[in-house]
């Protein structure tokens, strides 16, 4: 998925054929046991992105590529060969043992885990500071949005934030070196250090000022940039660089949300599509270390509060999952397609100087009546997680659902960079709670938070096409009982299958018919 940025956490802006790893000085007497073709192959030959970008390259960054991809059947990194008990890698004119590579990778992962964790904690504190200065509040489970802030201050905050960001991104995208997406960085494109830092800080800034977009892309981009620098210092082999960058990007997600499982599975399931022992072990090591270090900086607390969720769940929830999984799967597919459209039509050049401030103005006007639309979606989601089985509350959730979806897509379309993970959770929690109210009339259930939990996992799984990462992220952010993985996994599978069917048999066919006309 593309990562919103300059010119999508959020993605399909990968340029085909970037940075092949070719040996400029081939050995005239090569070792017959070494596969030189593998050494000289591009990094993509091992594990190409599952969601390979399609269409022309464009400015932007997303959480996941909005396209399907079947990974290469190869499971061995390019350039790696085995001969008896001696395993070596010979590329770029030198030979390096597997043991040496493992040692360097372990050292790099430990160093990056600590560094990314500290940076993730500082980015969170920066977000809190901007919220306090701009909106007079600091988000928390008890006060997830600027509900107590005067409406004029809310409108002024998003307008100023959007205007400043528009000018900064215009200068950055026009006159500075382009900041590639995380996907491009994984595939070998170098991330310029100061441009990446500015780009990351802008994303945190607009979320703190109230624009409707996720903040989870920023730490992943920072992690990828840091990985490239550390790899250069430690002389990590080119064969391992792609894995290290992806692992570090996932650790960035783990750091800001204290979600080591989601961070590791973001690397494994989305960026690399690789379940080799080295990838799995190092991904969990780096994400766990980053999450722990981040808590030392920003503290540890639950992100979303659940009301009255018990360890045991009733069997009727599995039946609810069948129905809600289909609905949330369709909604997730539509949100995925809408995000892709917004990214492909994102404002570029000087047009961002007026489109992004216009998006800020629209957000401010909507926030007069729907303040939970502001920010990364935490306020909207919390309404669902603490929902009440009342008809009036269902209307509020539906309004929040529509406002959050429209304003988020508008913000992306008008040139902002950011993620769609937490907005996806917000939409899923709202829809799950509304469906739960309907279900409660049949079963007499009173606890709406369990329905919001299932809806959040389902819609996020469908919109990201990554059910393992999605359900782990929702479970970690809510700190739900482990037994809830059963219904959560079930509804996630239903939603993903529904989203794939709906995309292929409805949206794609409609698009083909439209093209024929």
Automatic annotation (TrEMBL):
Q: Where's it mainly located?
A: membrane
- Localisation per UniProt entry: Membrane
**Polar residues bias: start-end ranges:** 71-92
A GO molecular function assigned to this protein is: chloride channel activity
Q: Which GO terms describe its cellular component?
A: chloride channel complex
> What InterPro entries does this protein map onto?
Cl-channel_core (IPR014743), ClC (IPR001807), ClC-type_chloride_channel (IPR050368)
Read off the PANTHER family from this record.
CHLORIDE CHANNEL PROTEIN CLC-E (PTHR43427:SF6)
Q: What is this protein called?
A: Chloride channel protein
